[in-house]
Amino acid sequence: MKTILASAVLFLATTANVAQGQAVAPTILRIDVENFVQYVEDTSDLSMFATNQGITTINPPRNFHSFVTLADIVAVNGQPATGTVLFDIRVVLLRPSPAAGAAIADTQRSGIRNSTFEILTSEGTPVGTIMATGLFAGVAPPGAPLDALVGNDAIVGGTGAFLGARGYAGQAAQTVPPRGASITEDPANRRRNGGGKTRYVLHVIPLARPEVLTTSSGPTILHSDFSPVNAAQPARAGEVLILVATGLGPTRPGVDPGKPFPADPLPQLTSPLEVTVNGKPAEILLSIGGPGTTDRYRVDFRVPEGTTAGLGTVQLSTAWIAGPEAAIAIQ
C-alpha cells in the first residue's frame, strides 16, 4: 500500500511537459445479441399491455404504428459481455414505389428509431451506454463499416466509458431474425420464449481514448523501482512494469468530474482493460486511478514471456477502444 500511495508523487511529476496527443481514432464495436424480440403495438387497450404469459402472434397496423425491441448483449468484439439493447421505433414505410398504405418517398426506409446499447462486463459491472437515433431498415449509408448492411442511425452520445461518443450504428446480417410479438406479451418471459440473434456494428468516435502518458522524455513506462524503461535500462520478458496512462475512464469508487482520485479506497477501473506488448496480451496486475491526480492512471503489467528483444510496442485498450502504440526497449 505504501508503494502504491508513494506513486502518487510520481504521477503528479509526470504531468509536466506532456507531449501533444495524437488525433482520436475511431473504434468499431461489434455487439452480438440474443433473445431479440420486437413487441408490436397492435392494440389500443393499454390494460392488455404485457399481460399474456404465452408466446403471441401479431396483427400490426398497415403503417404508422410503434414497437419496442429488446435484446440481450452477449459479446462485444468477440469478448463475453452482458447488457441490454432497447429500441423505440415508429414505423413509417417509405418507398419509391409504395404498396397501398406505405408512404411514397425518394428513399427506402421503414421508420425512425431511438436506440440504447447499455453494456456491462461479463461479471455485470457497468461499462457505459451508447445512444443513437436515426432511420430504421434500408441499406447502410456511405462510409459505414463494410459488415454494417442495414440501418442509418447516428450515435448522438454516451455515458460511462463512452461519454460524449459520436459515430454511426447499423446492423450486420442476421443470424436468426427477431421474433415478432404482440405488445400484450409479458416481456418477463422473453428469454424463456426465445427470440432472434444478430450483430450490431457501431463506428464509435470517442471523446477520449486510452494512452500511455508521454512526456518530453518519452512514454512513461517504468521498472518496479520507478526508474524509466529506456535504451540504457530496457525491459525484460517476464518483468513487471508500471505505466502511467490517461483516458482509461470511470473508476469504482467514482469521483466528480475534475476532482482527484482518492487514496482510500483505491479507485479500480470499471471498464475492460487490455495491455498488449508487440500485439501479445500481457497479464495485468493492477489498474487504478492515481491517488491525488485527475485523469492519471497506474497500470502494472507483466511483459509476456518470449517477447522478442529490441524496440517493441505497448498498446492500451479500454472498453474495446484502442489507443496508440507506445515504444518500449526490450532486452
Brief overview:
By secondary structure, this protein is mainly β. The protein contains two helices and 24 strands. An eight-stranded antiparallel beta barrel has the order 1-2-3-5-6-7-8-10. Strands 11, 14, 15, 20 and 21 form a five-stranded antiparallel sheet that branches.
Structural overview:
There is one protein chain. By secondary structure, the protein is mainly beta. Mean pLDDT is 93; it is low at 11-21. An 8-stranded antiparallel barrel has the order 1-2-3-5-6-7-8-10. Strands 11, 14, 15, 20 and 21 form a 5-stranded antiparallel beta sheet that branches. The protein is built from 2 helices and 24 strands. It has helices at 2-13, 190-193; strands at residues 27-40, 66-76, 79-95, 103-104, 109-121, 126-139, 150-160, 166-171, 179-182, 196-205, 211-212, 214-215, 218-219, 221-222, 240-246, 251-252, 268-269, 273-277, 280-281, 283-289, 297-302, 310-318, 321-322, 326-330.
Number of extended strands: 24
Let me know the largest β-sheet. Answer: 8 strands, antiparallel, barrel
Helix and strand element order: HEEEEEEEEEHEEEEEEEEEEEEEEE
Query: Structural class, please?
Result: mainly beta
Helix content: under 10%
The largest sheet has its strands arranged as 1-2-3-5-6-7-8-10
Report the β-strand fraction as a percent range.
over 45%
Mean pLDDT: 93
| Outline type | elongated
N-to-C CA distance = 30 Å
Given as residue ranges, the uncertain stretches (5+ residues, pLDDT < 50) are 11-21
- As a whole number of angstroms, the C-alpha radius of gyration is 24 Å
Count of DSSP H/I helices: 2
